[in-house]
Design goal:
Elements: H1 3-37, H2 43-60, H3 66-71, H4 80-104, H5 110-132, H6 145-177, H7 181-206, H8 217-223, H9 227-248, H10 253-292, H11 305-309, H12 316-332, H13 334-337, H14 342-347, H15 360-379, H16 382-391, H17 407-426, H18 433-447, H19 456-513, H20 529-558, H21 562-587, H22 599-631, H23 639-665, H24 671-693, H25 700-735
């Protein structure tokens, strides 16, 4: 067998390991968010439970490998050479898509990417095979149309089912528990938790283990012997255990249910999604070692009838290794620790800055939903409406715990999502675990009335935005793999080498060159003096950067350096964006929960951030005006204007170092002297403006330069005023 196929095999192995790492890093939020959202445990505890589920799920996933082997295409229609190129095209296109989506920040699904990449690559190879073959086979014969259609339908229908089931289960759960769930929990806690754990046991053990390659046929037969009786005894056992823990040991069994759901969802994720990462490699492994090696002579043109007839039984060592890689990624990947906030933002019961904006479809849907709600209120008997209203009455601000949602909703999210994914796995149907989990969370948040009239439009827009990413993923994966497959087939060995180099280059870029740490944000805690000092130091750093940009701007304007002004504009925008994110992610969400006795501190920090933003807006106006003036090739400042501006800039430069030192050190001994100097500086600005207005501009060039000069004077004076107001507020904060 030609050595090039062993190179392809090695590349597929490398890309599979990369897929495992990135897949867990990006999808960790699927099984971590609900536990973290209701604070069932800290990150390490939740991740440890998830790790156990990942290892078990990886060992159960052998049956899902059939999807990559023959779930989408008919292997018997392709030669060994074509199948190996088909697999390579799938993995390369997935790497290209992953790099593109990460660069653009678009949502993606590894399941949808795999299925549609297999479809596109199969179509590409079918076009090549028909072109090269003497027989006139219909194009559809190359695609396993019935199975592929069922898989695609299952993926998209599962999203609707997930949203609907999440809504229904959450509505009944809240009707049962109410938001004051501790009252009902005293009586029905064991029943609720025992039933949830029984359902998890059924789908994790009886449905998951039946396809595991680690069990003997005898053990599988024993599991399926009398499932009904086994589940009844399982329910009784769990009910007894939960009652003992709750009433005797005084354990909050809802936390146990949530953590168990986390493990079950991690198990379901690994069992269903492992095929996305190593399924193609395992199919290539079967093609090379189980088929090609056993045939003497050339095998490149041999049809893959044997691959079509046999099933892939992944060796346990491969599954265990894959599980260990996933667990390592879960604990050590920085992306896994930076759990995505999309789901938590859209499903949170807390109000605040919404991540998404408004859209016409969302506004129309909310309008119809409100009309439907009013109709239901009119036809519902008053006693029923009053009863339901009491059960759904929200907690008062004093009763709020500060979590995104409570343990009841956390258990619903995890159990429902785990059951749906486990059912699909038992039927050997791949689905998008990311979006099933996401849509269950969205359905439960809707039923839990977390979407109020003030937030529904923005959250529906978020759901539509995320779901729109699925279609982009499907179309992009199909087209990309179709093009890569044709390039590999018609381009020969040079195309294979080129595509492998491209994939490895993107792999290196995604792994080592583009994951610089992003800014992390944490909620404001006004009770911590250390955090207050950090805000002062951060404000000092930003103010120092603004001063540096301002001085560089004046120099670039006077020398008419367009490129420098362009870079300075970008830097000013970056500071403003950083300040807005601090306001939206740290300050605003924390304001409602600040104790009354510390409300003044919270208000002062809010004003500090607002003043900092205003200062940066003045700077950005200055840089934009200067850049536009030079970019349009207008005449620069005249000698008098340049001299006055440089003189004022020099005086500003003497003030700012003292201001920044005060901010950094928290020592405001000379603040009165500085404030007095700022008043004198303001008067000098006013004199320059008056002197300039008294000069008559007689031509268009002079008018444009005059407008720029007035803008520079006014915005600089405003920037200085904001800076001193910032100092005054921070001094007040430190004194308080």
């Amino acid at each position: 067998m030609d050595w090039i196929y062993y190179i392809i095999y090695g590349v597929l192995l490398l890309l599979s390991v990369f897929g495992l790492k990135v897949g867990v890093s990006n999808d960790a939020a699927n099984f971590l968010n609900s536990s973290l959202g209701c604070r069932a445990g800290n990150f390490n505890t939740v991740a440890a439970v998830a790790a156990v589920g990942v290892l078990l799920g990886a060992s159960f996933s052998s049956g899902m490998m059939e999807v990559a082997r023959s779930g989408v295409f008919n292997p018997a229609m392709f030669s060994f050479h074509e199948v190996m190129l088909l697999f390579l095209a799938v993995m390369i296109s997935n790497v290209i898509l992953l790099d593109l989506y990460n660069t653009l920040g678009l949502p993606t699904s590894t399941t949808i990417s795999l299925v549609f990449a297999l479809l596109g690559s199969s179509l590409g190879m079918a076009v090549y095979s028909k072109d090269m073959a003497t027989d006139d086979f219909p194009l559809a014969a190359y695609i396993n149309t019935s199975n592929a259609f069922a898989i695609v339908v299952a993926i998209f229908v599962s999203v609707i089912i997930a949203f609907t089931l999440g809504s229904c289960v959450m509505w009944f759960a809240r009707l049962l528990f109410s938001f004051h769930y501790t009252r009902a929990y005293r009586y029905i806690g064991p029943l609720w938790c025992g039933s949830a754990l029984t359902a998890i046991t059924y789908f994790a053990i009886f449905k998951g283990l039946k396809d595991s390659s680690m069990l003997s046929p005898e053990m599988k037969a024993a599991l399926n012997a009398d499932v009904g009786a086994a589940m009844l005894w399982c329910w009784v056992a769990w009910l007894g255990i939960m009652a003992f823990l709750q009433y005797v040991c005084r354990v909050n069994t809802l936390r146990i249910a949530v953590l168990s759901g986390t493990g079950a969802l991690a198990l379901a994720f690994a069992g269903n999604d492992l095929v996305n990462f190593i399924g193609v490699f395992m199919a290539a492994h079967s093609s090379i070692f189980d088929i090609a090696v056993n045939h003497a002579g050339g095998v490149a043109g041999m049809k893959m009838n044997a691959l079509a007839e046999q099933s892939i039984q992944a060796p346990p060592i491969y599954l265990l290794t894959a599980g260990l890689i996933m667990v390592a990624s879960l604990f050590f990947s920085k992306n896994a620790r930076k759990v995505t906030e999309t789901e938590l933002k859209l499903s949170s019961s807390n109000t605040g800055k919404e991540r998404f904006g408004s859209s016409l479809p969302a506004r129309v849907l909310v309008r119809y939903a409100l009309n439907a709600s009013r109709f239901i209120e009119r036809v519902t008997p008053r006693p029923v409406a009053n009863f339901v209203g009491k059960r759904f009455a929200p907690l008062s601000p004093e009763e709020e715990t500060g979590t995104n949602y409570d343990l009841v909703r956390g258990s619903v999210n995890l159990t429902t999502a785990a059951l749906l994914i486990s059912i699909a796995t038992s039927w050997k149907m791949p689905l998008s675990t990311t979006y099933v989990t996401f849509m269950v969370a969205m359905g439960s948040s809707l039923a839990d009335r977390a979407w109020g009239r003030d937030s529904a439009v923005y959250r529906i827009t978020g759901v539509l935005t995320v779901t729109g990413g699925w279609f982009l993923t499907a179309i992009g994966a199909c087209l990309a793999s179709f093009g890569v497959a044709l390039a590999l087939a018609y381009g020969g060995m040079w195309a294979v080498y080129g595509m492998i180099v491209l994939a490895l280059a993107l792999l290196v870029r995604s792994t080592f060159l583009t994951h610089g740490d992003k800014q992390e944000y944490r909620l404001l805690d006004v009770s911590r003096d250390a955090q207050i000092r950090e805000y002062g130091a951060a404000a000092a750093g930003r103010l120092g950067r603004m001063v540096g940009i301002y001085n560089a701007m004046v120099k670039a304007l006077l020398t008419e350096d367009r490129e420098s002004l362009k870079r300075l504009r970008k830097k000013a925008r970056s500071i403003k964006q950083d300040l807005k994110l601090v306001k939206e992610n740290e300050v605003l969400p924390a304001l409602p929960s600040i104790p009354k006795e510390q409300a003044d501190r919270g208000q002062l920090i809010f004003r500090i951030v607002e003043i900092s933003i205003s200062t940066c807006e003045c700077l950005l106006t200055l840089v934009k005006a200067s850049y536009n003036h030079i970019d349009n090739n207008h005449t620069g400042l005249n000698e008098d204007q340049a001299r006055d501006l440089l003189a004022l800039t020099g005086k500003i430069g003497r003030f700012y170092p003292d201001l920044i030192d005060m901010l950094k050190e928290g020592n405001y001994a000379g603040i009165d002297e500085l404030l007095g100097g700022s008043e004198q500086l303001g008067e000098e600005f006013a004199e320059c403006i008056t002197r300039h207005l008294m000069q008559n501009a007689t031509d268009e060039s002079g008018m444009r330069t005059g407008i720029l000069y007035l803008t520079l004077l006014n915005e600089t004076r405003a920037m200085v005023s904001h800076a001193f107001a910032l100092i005054a507020r921070i001094e007040e904060l430190y004194k308080g």
